[in-house]
Structure formats: C-alpha cells, structure tokens
Amino acid sequence: RTRDKLDRLNRELVKREREREIERGLREKAERERDELARVQERKVYRLKERMAREKESDRTRELKLELEALEKEREKLDEERKREQRRAEEELERAERERNKVEKEMEKLAREKDKLEEERARAEREAERR
User: What's the pTM value of the predicted model, to 2 decimals?
Assistant: First the structure.
C-alpha cells in the first residue's frame, strides 16, 4: 500500500515536471516573440527618427513626431508586459518548487513509514520464530 502511494506520488511528480517543462517552453517562446516584436519596434523607431532628420516640412515633422511618440508608448507597453510576464513566470517557478518540496517531504515520510512497517514485520517474524 505504501509502495502504491509512493508510485502514485512519483508519477504525479513526473507529470508535474513535464507540465513545468511545457510551460517553460511556452513562456520562452512568448518571450522570444515579444523580444522580436520589440526589435521590430526599435527598427521602426530608428527609421522614423532618420526620416524626421531628413524631413524639413513642419507638418510632416509633427506627424512623424506623433507617430514616434505612439511607437515609443507601444514599446513601453511591451516592456511592461514582458516584465509582468517575467514576474508571473518567476512566481510560477517558486510555486512549483514549493509543490515539489511538499511532494518530496511526503515521499520521505512514506519511506520512513515503510521502513518502520518493514522493521515491525521483521520483528514480528523473529517473535514468531522464537515461539
């Protein structure tokens, strides 16, 4: 019975590890996509700045400045989103670590229980042999 419980806990631990690997992969993919988006935005900002430098007409310059401000706000928003996602990922990792530690403690407790039961069984067998 204890062995069944240990096996079940072990399967649960393996399943959770697999889920964490999948989550980590998805988070990394999302982070790469956000980084690529940020790079694209940076390139747009750079090109806009270059165009503004060449542009002489005040109306066009004003339009470009507004567009640049909008792009910079969007970039800031992306940065904030990336930071929030990173914090969430760190919290998730901490939670998973706590869960893993809890399962490991339970497994240790069950192992001690199993050892104790085996000791009792051995003692009972010795008693039975003595009689």
Answer: 0.46
